[in-house]
Design goal:
The structure is a single chain. The protein is of the alpha/beta class. The protein folds into 3 domains: about 35 residues; about 170 residues, no CATH class; about 220 residues, Transposase Inhibitor Protein From Tn5, Chain A, domain 1 (Alpha-Beta Complex), CATH 3.90.350. Helices cover about 45% and strands about 15% of the residues. An 8-stranded mixed sheet has the order 3-2-1-4-5-9-8-7, sandwiched between helices. Strands 6-10 form a two-stranded parallel sheet. Strand 8 and strand 9 form a beta hairpin. The longest helix is centred in the N-terminal third of the chain and has 34 residues.
Length: about 500
């Protein structure tokens, strides 16, 4: 009897152990299945991007806010990534997705979101710093190109609705008023003048000027400044250099608009090397009066006014390069030819073109050629978070594509130019559209980001335009103006112990 009783107890314990094991297996299976849901995967990507929950611990906010800063910036990124052009509809979609992610301390209405984004610039500043930090962590060998950390800088404009608020904030002052008054006083003669009198010049459309600094190795927006349509992109770059830190051996590469003694002097004072295309818009001093004799030689930038005020000349290097069928002149602050070779100059200037593609992605792919906000402060916030969401989409794709295996890096199996912004956006928007869905193998967010690459195929037809009208704004730059220093300048150079010869 005792043995039978023990056998029954043993059977019961085995059955109970089996049922417990079965329950645990089911729970593990459910947990694994839940981890594959789009909202869980997206949350992990956001947590990696924003990093520590205490990123705003040192920042002061109003005591009556009912939102959490980290959750609010997540909401702002989701809002800016929405496909809807209407900002209020995009907010409704983002709020619904935030609730699916379990983000409860967010802005519960569109005005509250915009009030927070316009009032606290520190929100966008912290997110931009986090993007820079994460980009450097995953960059590997793509952080540098040869011995330099290359950055490009350029500017572009984005249009705004024609409202009183936007016109006051983003239009050039008194645009067209003098011209209109002049036409009204004149006695019109002929059909053309009568038409001009009937169709007077209209005020300029409000536009935001964006000056971007772009990492050429990672092809990623690094930082930027914005302002009215008549802003100075050189002043924007100077402000960036004065307020932000850049890595050692950073090389700034710009096009023909970034010229001038004051601008170059500011770059050199901040210990940043530069490489800029120049033409007939600059005047330089050289031992050779003939421009054809200068192929890779040292020159001086020393305007008369700067010399008279006692400022020292800038010692620079002028290099003649050929890209395709175009011959151009590049001016650099790197005097050592071994540190910045002729071949590297050609390579970096070709890489600089990627910032133009970045602006095209912002305007066309993300459909931000014209913003939607009718209030100037809201428009600035819309522009800021559109740029941040652009950087986030490209960074998430870069994280999944850049090889971590040293052998793959040496074989150059991946090029950063292969990354596609359009495909990365599609992957993120598909994920947000169905948060509770469990995608098929190979169709999840991470897999789609890893495969967000441009399609490589051979064109079977000629895609060249049959007719391309000349662009009056794109005129040949010409050659820099070169002259020998006069007697007064030579005496001053001798005092300063500056040699103009190589």
């Amino acid at each position: 009897m005792v043995r039978k009783k023990q056998d029954r107890v043993t059977k019961r314990s085995k059955a109970s152990n089996q049922s417990v094991a079965k329950i645990l297996r089911r729970r593990r299976a459910l947990a694994f299945t839940d981890s594959l849901k789009n909202k869980i995967v997206f949350t992990k990507e956001l947590n990696w991007l924003l990093g520590d929950k205490n990123m705003f611990a040192d920042d002061a906010f109003h005591g009556n806010i009912n939102w959490d800063p980290t959750e609010l910036v997540s909401q702002a990124i989701i809002w800016a990534l929405q496909e809807s052009k209407n900002v209020t509809d995009a907010f409704d979609y983002s709020l619904k997705f935030c609730d699916e992610l379990g983000l409860k301390q967010t802005a519960r209405s569109y005005p509250r979101l915009m009030n927070a984004l316009t009032r606290y610039d520190v929100l966008s500043t912290r997110v931009r710093s986090s993007i820079q930090q994460r980009a450097k962590e995953i960059s590997g060998d793509y952080w540098r190109a040869d011995n330099w950390v290359p950055f490009a800088f350029d500017g572009s404009r984005v249009s705004l609705p024609r409202t009183v608020s936007n016109e006051k904030a983003y239009c050039a002052a008194n645009y067209g008023q003098g011209k209109t008054a002049k036409y009204r006083k004149k006695k019109t003669k002929g059909m053309r003048r009568r038409k001009n009198e009937k169709a007077q010049p209209q005020p300029q459309r409000p536009q935001i000027w964006i000056t971007m600094v772009w990492h050429m190795g990672l092809r990623l927006p690094w930082t930027w400044r914005s302002g009215p349509s008549n802003s100075s992109e050189r002043a924007h770059v100077e402000n960036i250099l004065q307020t932000e830190q850049f890595p050692e051996e950073a090389l700034f590469c710009g096009d023909a608009g970034f010229v001038g003694y004051s601008f170059w002097n500011e770059l050199m004072l901040t210990r940043v090397e530069f490489l800029v295309r120049v033409g007939a818009n600059v005047s330089l001093l050289s031992q050779y009066a003939d421009i054809q004799r200068i192929k890779d030689n040292k020159v001086l930038c020393w305007p008369k006014g700067k010399m008279q005020s006692g400022e020292e000349p800038l010692q620079l290097r002028l290099v003649k390069i050929t890209i395709g069928k175009t011959t151009m002149w590049m001016l650099t602050s790197v005097l050592d030819r071994r540190k910045l070779t002729h071949k590297q100059i050609v390579r970096y200037y070709k890489m600089r073109w990627g910032i133009e593609v970045e602006f095209r992605g912002l305007k066309q792919t993300m459909d931000n050629r014209k913003l939607s906000c009718r209030n100037s402060d809201n428009a600035k916030a819309e522009m800021e978070w559109s740029l941040l969401s652009l950087a986030v989409a490209e960074l998430l794709a870069l994280r999944r594509q850049i090889p971590q295996n040293r052998r793959q890096i040496k074989k150059r199996e991946y090029e950063v130019t292969d990354r596609s912004l359009a495909e990365a956006l599609r992957a993120i928007r598909r994920c947000m559209a169905s948060p509770d869905a469990i995608p098929e193998p190979g169709e999840g967010l991470i897999e789609q980001l890893a495969n967000a690459k441009v399609q490589r195929y051979k064109n079977k037809t000629d895609k060249n335009a049959r007719y391309r009208p000349p662009n009056p704004d794109k005129k040949p730059l010409g050659d820099p103006k070169i002259r020998r220093p006069d007697a007064i300048e030579r005496a001053k150079l001798k005092e300063l112990d500056v040699q103009i010869a190589v």
